[in-house]
Every structure is written in C-alpha cells, then in structure tokens.
Design goal:
Length: 253
C-alpha cells in the first residue's frame, strides 16, 4: 500500500508526502507552501525525488520553487498544457502516462474542468484528485464547462477501483456534506457521514481520505443519474444538465 502522509497547508489545503513501500522513494503532491512541507520531510527524514502537481493554481504549486532549491535535481511534474503556469516544472505528462515512484506506478488521468490542465495521479490504492473531486463535492468550473467536468468525474469513477483512497486538495468535506444534507434531507447515509465529518473536525482531525466507494454512494456530483438527485435539482434525463444545475446550486449555496 502506498504510504501517504497529510501535510495541512494554508487555511484548508493538503499537501501529501508519498512514500513507495518497496524503496522508500518519496514524492510530494501539491506543495501549497514550502514551510510545512519542508518541516514534515525533515521530521520524517525524507528527501523527495519529485513533486506532482494536480493543477497550476497557486495554492497547489506555491512551494515548488523552494522545494526545487532545497533538493537539487528534484523533478516537478504537471500536465503538458500547464508548462509556463507551474513554477519550476521540469516534466510534462499527458493522459494515460505512468509516473514511477520506486516500485509504485502512478497513472495520470487528464481531468479538465476546474482547470484545463488538471490531472489526477492514481496508484492501485490511492488517488490524488486535486480540486477535481472533493469528498462530497467537486471543484468549481474555472476553465472548463459542465460537460467537461462531468466527463472528468465519470472518468475518475470508472478508472479507479472502488476501494481506492481519495486524497483531495482541500478540507471541504463537512461543508460539502451540509450542502448534500440540505439537498437530500431524507438521505440517512449523508446525515451519518456529516456527523462523522463534524466529529473529526471538532477534534481537528482530517476527514481525508475516504474511499471512492463512499463517494459513489454520497457525492451527488457522481450521482447525476440518481433519481433522488434529479428530483432535488428539478432536472432529469440528462446527467450533464443535472450536473450543471447541481454545480450552480452549490455555487449559490
Ligand atoms: Fe484550484
């Protein structure tokens, strides 16, 4: 199993330290800022060989340059279309590429919508979804449209094993679940998940990760063909139209 350490950054971001269990090779996903990431690496006596960026937004790449300076030879990987937008980028990936971290193979899924160059990195048992798939939600459509984001979320849902642990870019889970609970007041599974998330947050503990299986059951953006979600937004028959209505509701919530 890929070893993953959460590093809280800024107000509600997570960077992740990945360690391949066979070789100990280490990578950093989305260093929002350098300081907490460098502190976590030092505490664990890890020296990363690469940074994996899910997209170009500053709260995901803000620590790239300081990490590149601290670790000469560090590879900084992001989607090919993000070259020029990701600081210190050295490598470009495209959909279907594989990135090796020691004995762990990470698959690249190009998932445009939040941004046009958004990618998800996925091993056999962990996926780093950035601001595309959140627990209980999805990212805003800054550069893509509803059809594009819907297709990207479906791609993640279909490409990954349901047991995959989902590590997303932000701690938004409790608020996302409050939105779903308002949308579907009769959904007991959502109420239970909200209570769990609120308990964790009250103890200042992360809600991340959760399994893709849980997301398929709870996250309405992955259930745009579910009659309960269709009824809640008052649109049916076209999952992209349901998705667009749901995203608009969430934006205005
Ligand atoms: Fe973002």
């Amino acid at each position: 199993m890929l070893d993953v350490t959460l590093v809280p950054c800024l107000s509600d971001n997570y960077a992740y330290l990945l360690r391949d269990p066979a070789t100990g090779e280490c990578a950093v996903v989305d260093p929002s800022e350098a300081e907490p990431v460098l502190a976590a690496l030092a505490a664990m006596q890890l020296r990363p060989t690469m940074v994996l960026n899910t997209h170009h937004h500053h709260d995901h790449v803000g620590g790239n340059e300081a990490l590149a300076a601290a670790f000469p030879g560090l590879r900084v990987i992001a989607h090919a279309s993000d070259q020029g937008r990701v600081p210190a980028q050295t490598g470009a990936v495209a959909d279907g590429d594989r990135v090796a971290l020691g004995g762990t193979s990470l698959r690249v899924l190009h998932v445009p919508g939040h941004t046009l160059g958004a990618v998800t990195y996925a091993s056999d048992d962990a996926a780093f979804t950035g601001d595309t798939l959140f627990l209980g939600g999805c990212g805003r459509l800054f550069e893509g449209d509803a059809a594009m984001m819907y297709a990207s979320l479906q791609r993640i849902a279909e490409a990954l094993d349901p047991a995959t642990r989902v590590f997303c870019g932000h701690e938004y889970t409790a608020n996302n679940l409050r939105f779903i609970a308002a949308l579907e007041p009769d959904n007991a599974a959502v109420r239970d998940a909200l209570a769990d998330a609120e308990r964790l947050r009250a103890d200042d503990r992360p809600t991340v990760p959760k399994s893709l299986r849980d997301e398929l059951r709870l996250n309405p953006f992955l259930r745009c063909d579910d009659p309960a979600v269709e009824a809640a937004v008052g649109v049916s028959g076209d999952p992209v139209a349901v998705f667009a209505a749901l995203r608009a509701r969430r934006n205005n919530w």
